[in-house]
Amino acid sequence: MKKYNVTGIGNALVDIEFKVTDQFFADNGIEKGLMTLVDEERQNHLMQVIRYAEAKKQAGGSAANSVVAVSQFGGKSFYCFRVANDELGHFYLQDLIDSGVDIALTSAQLQTGVTGKCLVMVTEDSERTMNTFLGITQNFSSQDVHDAAIQDSSYLFIEGYLVTSPNGKEAMLYAKKVAESAGTKVALTFSDPAMVKYFKSNFDDVIGPNVDLLFANEEEAMLYTGKSTLAEAREEMKKAAKHFVITMGKNGAMIFDGNIFIDIEPHPTTAIDSNGAGDMFAGAFLYGITNGHSYAESGKLASMASSRIVSQFGPRLKWHEAKEILERLKP
Fold it and tell me: Is the pTM of this model over 0.90?
């Protein structure tokens, strides 16, 4: 039996989340609803105009949020990443450790540079807008991949945001090769529609013949397959993945378990903040299928968990909330 349920690789970013108004976007020339990569000067400017003391800080990044979710539900997870030898880098290490995620990187090994940051701006309509400075995580490469952890995991979970750089793509391909050689299943998330739109060929290279599990939302599924309807897209997705999940927001989710499609009902909620909902869905689903639950049960767990996430501020559950959701899953 393998030690870890999931080993994740991805961009390590300290999420700095705060509430704003639409006027804030107008005043600062920010395009609402998108994830925009910015340089350090631009992000420093925004840091000066926000109420930093009121902002919530957490070790984040898409895959990091998912492996933390695995841990919160009682699973064992490992994360491969890169942060710098600065205040936020040390904060990142400790936050992952406190969240029950195993890591190989120590404070003594941190390199000179700037830890990546993601300013997560949440408006009253619960929409999130992100301005991200990657910092040292843009240098994430195959050297940061921990072979032993992948080999001792049921699943490797790859974050789609890594496709934007040659070294990130190289790390994805290397980690996938390590996993396949060790009999570790490979899961991939597209992460964002913009990644699919502008880096589709890179995804084609990483997916290769196929992956074991693919996570996408409706828009990403149709962009990747080039289809105009979800019905057509889901059939085309069978060529890329043995199993896949298509999340559909307030309409729930659709799972292909390798044989049939399973509809997952949504859990009605009052949306406050959509940040991290997809990451939570992936983490909860991966926890489920690596802990004896069926695809349908894992989808139900993931739906309950992600609905709880959008009803609160921030991308993580509290520990007692994860336990309550697991209790609700019992017959």
Answer: yes
